[in-house]
Q: What sequence folds into this?
């Protein structure tokens, strides 16, 4: 069972682990000043690539090995990698260290299926929502925290402090999380092959992955181009000013527990449909962002509420499918999200260069409208279980 202490521990670990792949983004100016322009490409890219590799290569191990031990060891590995970042003597070692940081930061994706595994069926959505609030808040506030520290201390101390925090997370995991025993351990090769089998045999998982991935594509089309909008005329904000829009998104993160409770009571479909409609509406509002920062702020709030609410519902119904395979289910879900997220960022950026902000809004609306269509045509039962 998942007691309050373990639930808090998983929430802190989810947010604290994922934050590490975003600390570099507000510090890129300082890093570029030391290592050159190529750092602006290689540092954030290697961190995100490493996170994707961790989701594919490490997260499924949670279905074969005790998750508490995995989380502890990943946090310890994360601490060493962050120390290497803080002490990196050149760009090559910095990029390699960031790749390893990304791999071990996927401890966040161990925490969420662990919470789903320990939670009772009747409250799984609420518990997943609470832990995801920690993860989403970590993503949104990481840039603000590292930017503030970097401005006062420089970029290297940010990662040395992060290494200490990773050690603290390892201690939290050891002190708060329960021991579990995997009754059906699988060899690694069989574990990885079974991921493909899950994607093939679970239509609910495919629907959840597709609907959420389309929303994530719209989300990334927006965030990949927002700075270009608000830093240009007529607004002329600084990079720090552009980053403050992420703070608005924290309000959207706190919808996660509410979405989880509603999913527990009414099923996933109405929550996913409602979230998809909100994201589509956000791009109608964001179209006015060409001349209004108020419209941009409101659009940020709508898109974050919509995508986070749908995410909790899609995760909850996916985790209910095969109790012993939640790590692999997480891998299918988030690998699909990453692929569509990259597509959305690329198409959104091209639309901005060719058409301007109206093009970005058209791309985001198209992706989210497809998500609405997938949700509306979802043939699965309200609870999301396959039959």
A:
């Amino acid at each position: 069972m998942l007691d309050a202490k373990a639930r808090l521990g998983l929430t802190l670990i989810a947010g604290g682990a994922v934050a590490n792949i975003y600390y570099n983004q507000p510090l890129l100016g300082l890093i570029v000043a030391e290592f050159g322009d190529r750092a602006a490409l290689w540092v954030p890219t290697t961190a995100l690539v490493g996170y994707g590799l961790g989701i594919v290569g490490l997260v499924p191990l949670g279905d074969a090995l005790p998750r508490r031990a995995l989380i502890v060891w990943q946090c310890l590995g994360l601490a060493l990698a962050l120390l290497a970042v803080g002490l990196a003597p050149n760009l090559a070692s910095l990029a390699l260290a960031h790749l390893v940081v990304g791999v071990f930061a996927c401890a966040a994706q161990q925490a969420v299926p662990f919470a789903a595994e320990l939670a009772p069926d009747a409250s799984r959505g609420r518990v997943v929502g609470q832990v995801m609030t920690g993860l989403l808040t970590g993503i949104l506030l990481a840039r603000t925290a590292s930017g503030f520290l970097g401005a006062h201390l420089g970029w290297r101390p940010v990662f040395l402090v992060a290494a200490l925090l990773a050690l603290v997370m390892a201690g939290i995991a050891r002190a708060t999380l329960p021991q579990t025993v995997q009754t059906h351990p699988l060899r690694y090769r069989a574990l990885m092959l079974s991921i493909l089998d899950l994607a093939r045999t679970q239509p609910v998982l495919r629907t959840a992955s597709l609907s959420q991935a389309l929303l994530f594509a719209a989300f990334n089309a927006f965030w990949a181009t927002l700075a270009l909008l608000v830093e240009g005329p007529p607004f002329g904000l600084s990079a720090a000013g552009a980053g403050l829009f992420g703070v608005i998104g924290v309000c959207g993160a706190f919808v996660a527990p509410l979405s989880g409770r509603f999913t527990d009571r009414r099923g996933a479909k109405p929550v996913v449909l409602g979230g998809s409609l909100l994201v589509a509406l956000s791009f109608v509002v964001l179209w006015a962002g060409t001349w209004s920062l108020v419209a941009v702020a409101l659009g940020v709030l709508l898109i974050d509420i919509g995508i986070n609410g749908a995410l909790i519902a899609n995760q909850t119904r996916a985790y209910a499918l095969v109790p012993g395979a939640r790590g692999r289910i997480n891998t299918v879900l988030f690998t699909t999200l990453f692929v569509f997220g990259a597509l959305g960022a690329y198409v959104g950026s091209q639309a901005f260069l060719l058409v301007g902000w109206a093009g970005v809004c058209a791309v985001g609306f198209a992706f989210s409208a497809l998500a609405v269509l997938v949700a509306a045509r979802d043939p699965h039962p309200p609870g999301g279980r396959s039959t």
Remarks:
- Residues 50 and 102 are 4 Å apart (CA to CA).
- The mean pLDDT is 87.
